[in-house]
């Protein structure tokens, strides 16, 4: 507002009638808004009048009359408008009319002491007193940059609120001027005086010359704007939004994909806007409730027309797969079917599938659903045999290395299980053969456990062999002692002595050890039988306990039910 007031003040120095007319219209506008209780219009009109007072276009009497009118019957809105008016022109009123200014603040103090207004308005009055105490430091009357007119050159108009004024609305409408040439000469003289136009000569009297000069000036200005427009960068993205709107409306208003493609090609897209077209096709397809083949055929037509459209669709495939976890189920299904259609028709390269790594670490539930819908759509349209031939194609091995991994048996098993679970196990025949051909290696942890078990068994066998040898020695010693006693007894009884052969002693020892081993076996069987009987008894007792507990639970539940029924 202060800038417009400065412009009016500059015009008022040369055309005082213009400044007077603007001031009249502002006063009339304030009267109407005050009668209608239009607070917003009151604030704007009083602000403009306040800045005209600061520029000395309007007399300070007008401002004092407005303030007394607003504070005579004080309401919340009128006090708020008067405070906004005081903030703008309070500094100038303090300079020009100290007594009137102090009278206004006395009235504000009385309103504050009465306490009939809202707390918010009372707080605004207190803030106004604080601004007056600071001598309007933050609210100067005129900014130094806008102080362009000297006081001696300015015309101040004394117009009061009660004075009848004419809007002169007839000036808003064109009227035929009979003395146009004379008035035009007068205007040129005034123009020369104001602008100090030295280039105006007597030759400028002709209207044609003036028009040609104005046309040339307009052309120069358009050329300058054209050069400047190349350097302007539009960060508001208004052109992008209008382009997306046009593409969307064109797609929705088309009956079939051929008509839609023809209309979109007529838009004459720039190289940077091709990507936006591809994004719009994918977004429109994703927003549908069910997949519509219209969008697949439309994308196929653009990809087959020019390779410049195929590359953006491949980049969109990569970005969609990376952010597939953010998609809703419906959107995910539509996008997967759209790209499946583009792969079936070879509109985009199959190498885009190299971006997919099918293993437990690199996939999420959403990405697995995307792969499932994609391959199920491929198998339905192409058939399992043709799809298998495409997968086994040697030129496309890089594309399917991630989907059918052979680097790690764990990833291979994961891929086999995944395709088998979605009903496409026929695609994994080569993977199964590859998995069978891999040599089975023993895990290091399992081999360590086997070594420990073998060591324990060998130690147990050595202990048993030592114990058996010790028993043999004890038996042999006992047998030798018995034989010696027997020989001594025989020698005492009879002079003849008999020597046992080595064969017989060996047989007797063998028979004794055999009998001992039988005894040990019988003991072991007896112990095992006792152990089994104990286990059977414990199992029976535990089953009896379980039956008793079950009966107790049934009784308690039945008693609770009976209690609840009662």
From TrEMBL:
<feature type="compositionally biased region" description="Acidic residues">
    <location>
        <begin position="195"/>
        <end position="225"/>
    </location>
</feature>
<dbReference type="GO" id="GO:0003723">
    <property type="term" value="F:RNA binding"/>
</dbReference>
<feature type="region of interest" description="Disordered">
    <location>
        <begin position="454"/>
        <end position="566"/>
    </location>
</feature>
<dbReference type="Pfam" id="PF02847">
    <property type="entry name" value="MA3"/>
</dbReference>
<dbReference type="GO" id="GO:0071013">
    <property type="term" value="C:catalytic step 2 spliceosome"/>
</dbReference>
<feature type="domain" description="MI">
    <location>
        <begin position="242"/>
        <end position="358"/>
    </location>
</feature>
<dbReference type="InterPro" id="IPR016024">
    <property type="entry name" value="ARM-type_fold"/>
</dbReference>
<feature type="region of interest" description="Disordered">
    <location>
        <begin position="192"/>
        <end position="231"/>
    </location>
</feature>
<feature type="compositionally biased region" description="Basic residues">
    <location>
        <begin position="501"/>
        <end position="534"/>
    </location>
</feature>
<feature type="compositionally biased region" description="Low complexity">
    <location>
        <begin position="476"/>
        <end position="494"/>
    </location>
</feature>
<comment type="similarity">
    <text>Belongs to the CWC22 family.</text>
</comment>
<keyword id="KW-0539">Nucleus</keyword>
<dbReference type="GO" id="GO:0016607">
    <property type="term" value="C:nuclear speck"/>
</dbReference>
<dbReference type="InterPro" id="IPR050781">
    <property type="entry name" value="CWC22_splicing_factor"/>
</dbReference>
<dbReference type="InterPro" id="IPR003891">
    <property type="entry name" value="Initiation_fac_eIF4g_MI"/>
</dbReference>
<dbReference type="GO" id="GO:0000398">
    <property type="term" value="P:mRNA splicing, via spliceosome"/>
</dbReference>
<keyword id="KW-0508">mRNA splicing</keyword>
<dbReference type="Pfam" id="PF02854">
    <property type="entry name" value="MIF4G"/>
</dbReference>
<dbReference type="InterPro" id="IPR003890">
    <property type="entry name" value="MIF4G-like_typ-3"/>
</dbReference>
<protein>
    <recommendedName>
        <fullName>MI domain-containing protein</fullName>
    </recommendedName>
</protein>
<keyword id="KW-0507">mRNA processing</keyword>
